Amino acid sequence: MNFIKVIKVLLFMTFFLGVSIPVMARTISHPNHYDHATVGEHFDPYSMVTKMTGSRYDRMGKKSIWSYEYADGTICRVVTAGYIVQDIYLVKP
């Protein structure tokens, strides 16, 4: 009986550490300006100085989300409504 409890605790701890370590290794920020995107100003999705990794349109929120990846692993997501920047998300490794 105790052996089963020990296995359950070990499985739980393995899962907990496996989920929490990658989350702690990343930093998410919301700057007002990054690269060629500034909150509240017009946005040209092709003026960023790195490669675009994707874009999608959120029909419910009526917003476009543009994703870019930089050489150092930083991921930048620019949220626009009518090509006006609403928010910028940066995920740094």
Descriptive report:
25% of the residues lie in helices and 41% in strands. It has one helix at 2-24, and strands at 27-29, 33-34, 37-38, 51-58, 63-69, 75-81, 84-92. The model has no long low-confidence stretch (mean pLDDT 83). The protein is elongated and about 65 Å long. The termini are far apart. It contains one helix and seven strands; from the N terminus they run αβββββββ. The protein has a five-stranded antiparallel β-sheet with strand order 1-7-6-5-4, with no helix packed on it. The chain has 93 residues and is an alpha+beta fold.
Alpha-beta content class: alpha+beta
Strand content: 35-45%
> What does the oligomeric state look like here?
single chain
The number of distinct helices, counting runs of at least 4 residues, comes to 1
The beta-strand count equals 7
Order of helices and strands: HEEEEEEE
N- to C-terminal distance? 42 Å
Q: How would you summarize the topology of this molecule?
A:
Blueprint: H1 2-24, E1 27-29, E2 33-34, E3 37-38, E4 51-58, E5 63-69, E6 75-81, E7 84-92
Antiparallel strand pairs: 1-7, 2-3, 4-5, 5-6, 6-7
Structure characteristics:
93 residues; alpha+beta; five-stranded antiparallel β-sheet; two-stranded antiparallel ribbon; 7 strands; elongated
Short description:
The protein has 93 residues and is α+β, with helices and mostly antiparallel strands.
